[in-house]
């Protein structure tokens, strides 16, 4: 059947706002960065319909379990758009996905991304992918593919969003979690790099709507602008956590994301036990104080929304504490004993914060 010619002035994909050539240009620009994430198990190159990963590499496992996770970075993308900085948001995306995967003790294997834009700006898309690729290197995984979608009419020309999905693998008898935790275990906190990628709806409301601050505003407590502080990439703990499991006995990890420290720690605490975390063991960074003070946000509300300076927690037996702290220190991760596991009382919940933050 022959095609009917398009009438002069008729509709086309381009006239509807989708630029296929710009999309092709973006793919060419991002190939260099994707190649940097390549692992030996990855087959083929960028541009296929699916990424291929050689599963025969898993033969070394007795009973390999695949772990998967998906996430985005929320309204933090709005700050990247406002500042015109696109090469850090990918770090956030990898952290949100791969640090969830490592919680069960899984080694990150590969990741795919989804970038949705109002209009394809090839250099901008390539910068986003550059950040994702750099994050994948930090997490030890490959970026095997993704999708860039142009949605004119739904998103403004400069608007965008990102999401990703990842896969890892763990030996069945080495899965970490609640069933390993015992009363008397220590809770080790690992310092966050800042706000990470949660709570930005509250943060943006406080600093812009209530405090009237600007992203270009210098903040003495930060030693840089507000925008630079808010855009600080999320810490990627994946390889640090794996190094910890190789050097010491670890019973569980908890990735501190949306919902705050107590709620996320409670997710890995068994019903019969209780985690007590002492606030006096650390001082949250200045950005948390700014949000609380500028927005007159009560402490409990802050703690339900933000990580308060702790991005990951490890639950280890007492005899593993010294080795765990030494390993993390050697890897440049700020860490300290923040609490312990006790028997659950009649009126206690999974995890409780006690005391006041150190000044």
UniProtKB/TrEMBL annotation:
Pfam families from the UniProt entry: AIRS, AIRS_C
Domain of life where this protein originates: Bacteria
EC class of the enzyme, as a word: ligase
UniProt domain PurM-like C-terminal: residue ranges: 182-347
Family: Belongs to the AIR synthase family.
Subcellular location: Cytoplasm
Record SUPFAM superfamilies: PurM C-terminal domain-like, PurM N-terminal domain-like
CDD domains registered for this protein in UniProt: PurM (cd02196)
GO molecular function: phosphoribosylformylglycinamidine cyclo-ligase activity
Catalysed reaction equations from the record: 2-formamido-N(1)-(5-O-phospho-beta-D-ribosyl)acetamidine + ATP = 5-amino-1-(5-phospho-beta-D-ribosyl)imidazole + ADP + phosphate + H(+)
Origin species: Streptomyces chengmaiensis
The protein's name: Phosphoribosylformylglycinamidine cyclo-ligase
Residue ranges annotated for the PurM-like N-terminal domain, each copy included: 62-170
Listed pathway(s): Purine metabolism; IMP biosynthesis via de novo pathway; 5-amino-1-(5-phospho-D-ribosyl)imidazole from N(2)-formyl-N(1)-(5-phospho-D-ribosyl)glycinamide: step 2/2
Keywords: ATP-binding, Cytoplasm, Ligase, Nucleotide-binding, Purine biosynthesis
Taxon lineage: Bacteria, Bacillati, Actinomycetota, Actinomycetes, Kitasatosporales
Documented EC number(s): 6.3.3.1
